[in-house]
């Protein structure tokens, strides 16, 4: 049991404003494994005031990018030194299989921190050039007080995706993790403090959506960086728009894998499957719609079922587990409800559909494959967020592209084919922010990542991810003056 009785606000562990607490419950055992104080509006006000003061008067924005980068590098190193324990902590919070978690939940955040630490010495914060009317300096300055809001599914990864570039920029941060995963957020605060983050720069305020709304609407917050559902993203975008507050949104997805008619399934499925039900299907980039050529539909379905029924479902902490429990009972209810909706709509279950035998505790759902799915069905249009795949037939490449694009979302996707050129042609036509051609890598941390359509606004990762936390200022200079930058 990991318990905190204080909140990390402005670089200090302080008394919370209320006695309200959040229990962290293991999705495998349904037992309480941690407890933290729940932040309330008064705690948010205190955290924002501290971030504003640190931004206006503290050392952090005035340090060099390389000095700030050194803190990120030390934090990455500290996480790397404790990978197994951190992976287990996160699996205990939200049910991610620990073997997958070691890479995606723990190693990946260190790569993100290291990447942005590297930008500390290579990114051009200041450039001087000859403008049309005289010399000009363009300087990129920190945006100010950042509200970072994340969901529970890849908590440390998403925290790193926001905090690494925000901190490198010189901004100060109020971080609101999801109430399901506050323990790794507090751990990150401890790690960053030990790495040398000055007081005031970071606060961690675990809470639910109402308190999140208070943070978003706080007048002293200059920028909101949000990852979560499209429903919440629309509200946050509207609230920020009303006050011309900067915002960026990483939202939901319903991504399609296109298996072209020349595909070799023995080669393609090992590339595709890790992205189809990664993280128990609780991933925004999951390839949950499998588009199969009609004349090979049966063959594709059988191969998929064969792969999925071999997957080991069980305790998230067991290194052999490939599919763990869903984050909460309400999430299992949601997934089971979609399984019922799919059947009511006329789709057929080729595998799974129920709860796995012998797992009476924990919020498990069997890996499930739906066949005879039409893309207009709700199970093909809405984000289920569980280990459920839908196999959809198509008649031609054009048909496959139009089915892939027939979605409110546009986050990710992949094409698998014997012909890379043909695959790249398909990739160019699918309206999503990230794509895979015969690849199993959905995100490259040095390149932009984000969504078209209702999957988001703005791009995280790469230099774009840093630009999200920078304001640009043009300074016109007198003729003959060249400042050193
Ligand atoms: P959610 O939108 O309900 O909550 C996400 C976070 O936002 C939580 O911390 C929550 O407390 C907070 N929140 C919710 N409404 C808010 C509001 N109006 N104002 C301020 N804060 C608010 O999402 P969820 O169901 O917990 O997470 C799953 C969703 O996240 C899925 O849709 C998934 O696709 C998406 N996601 C997207 C990405 C990406 O990079 N695009 C990555 C991971 C998850």
SSE order and pairing:
Blueprint: E1 2-3, E2 7-9, E3 12-14, E4 21-25, E5 32-37, H1 41-57, H2 65-80, H3 83-94, H4 98-122, E6 126-130, E7 135-142, E8 145-149, H5 155-169, E9 172-176, H6 183-194, E10 202-204, H7 209-217, E11 223-227, H8 230-242, E12 246-250, E13 255-259, H9 265-276, E14 287-293, H10 297-309, H11 329-345, E15 348-351, E16 368-371, H12 378-381, E17 388-394, H13 397-405, E18 409-410, E19 413-416, H14 420-429, E20 436-437, E21 452-453, E22 456-457, H15 462-467, E23 470-476
Helix pairs in contact: 2-4, 2-5, 2-6, 3-4, 4-5
The protein binds nicotinamide-adenine-dinucleotide.
The site of nicotinamide-adenine-dinucleotide has 28 residues, from helix 7 and helix 8.
Structure description:
This protein has 485 residues and is α/β, with parallel strands linked by helices. The chain contains 15 helices and 23 strands. It has helices at residues 41-57, 65-80, 83-94, 98-122, 155-169, 183-194, 209-217, 230-242, 265-276, 297-309, 329-345, 378-381, 397-405, 420-429, 462-467; strands spanning 2-3, 7-9, 12-14, 21-25, 32-37, 126-130, 135-142, 145-149, 172-176, 202-204, 223-227, 246-250, 255-259, 287-293, 348-351, 368-371, 388-394, 409-410, 413-416, 436-437, 452-453, 456-457, 470-476. The strands form six sheets. The protein has a seven-stranded mixed beta sheet, sandwiched between helices. A six-stranded mixed beta sheet has the order 10-9-8-11-12-22, sandwiched between helices. Strands 1-5-4 form a three-stranded mixed beta sheet, with helices on one face. Helix 6 (183-194) links the parallel strand 9 (172-176) and strand 10 (202-204). The model has no long low-confidence stretch (mean pLDDT 98).
């Amino acid at each position: 049991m990991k318990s905190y009785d204080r909140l990390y606000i402005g670089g200090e562990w302080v008394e919370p404003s209320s006695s309200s607490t959040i229990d962290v419950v293991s999705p495998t055992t349904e037992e309480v494994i941690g407890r933290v104080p729940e932040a309330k509006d008064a705690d948010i006000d205190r955290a924002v005031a501290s971030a504003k003061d640190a931004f206006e008067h503290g050392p952090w924005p005035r340090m060099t990018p390389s000095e700030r980068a050194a803190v990120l590098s030390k934090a990455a190193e500290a996480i790397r030194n404790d990978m197994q324990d951190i992976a287990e902590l996160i699996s205990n919070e939200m049910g991610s299989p620990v073997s997958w978690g070691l890479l995606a939940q723990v190693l990946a955040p260190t790569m993100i921190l290291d990447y942005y630490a590297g930008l500390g010495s290579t990114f051009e914060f200041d450039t001087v050039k000859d403008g049309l009317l005289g010399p000009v300096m363009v300087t990129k300055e920190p945006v100010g007080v950042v509200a970072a809001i994340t969901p529970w599914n890849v908590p440390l990864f998403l925290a790193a995706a926001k905090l690494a570039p925000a901190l490198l920029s010189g901004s100060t941060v109020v971080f609101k993790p999801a109430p399901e995963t506050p323990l790794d957020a507090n751990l990150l605060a401890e790690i960053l403090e030990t790495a040398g983050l000055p007081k005031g720069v970071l606060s961690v305020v675990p809470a639910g959506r109402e308190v999140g709304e208070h943070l978003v609407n706080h007048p002293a917050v200059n920028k909101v960086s949000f990852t979560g559902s499209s429903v919440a993203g629309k509200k946050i975008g509207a609230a920020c728009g009303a006050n011309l507050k900067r915002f960026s949104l990483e939202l939901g997805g319903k991504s399609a894998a296109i298996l072209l008619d020349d595909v070799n399934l023995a080669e393609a499925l090992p590339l595709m499957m890790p992205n189809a039900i990664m993280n128990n299907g609780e991933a925004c980039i999951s390839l949950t719609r499998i588009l199969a050529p009609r004349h090979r539909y049966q063959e594709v379905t059988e191969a998929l079922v064969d792969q999925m029924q071999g997957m080991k479902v069980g305790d998230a902490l067991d290194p052999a587990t490939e599919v763990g429990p869903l984050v909460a009972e309400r999430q299992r209810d949601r997934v089971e409800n979609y399984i019922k909706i799919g059947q009511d709509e006329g789709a057929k279950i080729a595998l799974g559909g129920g709860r796995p035998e012998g797992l009476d505790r924990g919020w498990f759902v069997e890996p499930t494959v739906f066949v005879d799915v039409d893309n207009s069905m709700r199970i093909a249009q809405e984000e289920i967020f569980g280990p459920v795949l839908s196999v959809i037939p198509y008649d031609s490449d054009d048909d496959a592209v139009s089915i892939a694009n027939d979605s409110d979302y546009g986050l990710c996707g992949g094409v698998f084919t014997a012909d890379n050129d043909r695959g790249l042609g398909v990739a160019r036509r699918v309206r999503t922010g990230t794509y895979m051609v015969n690849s199993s890598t959905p995100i490259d941390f040095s390149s932009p990542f984000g969504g078209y359509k209702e999957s988001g606004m703005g791009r995280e990762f790469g230099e774009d991810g840093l630009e999200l936390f920078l304001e640009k200022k043009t300074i016109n200079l007198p003729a003959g003056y060249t400042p050193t930058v």
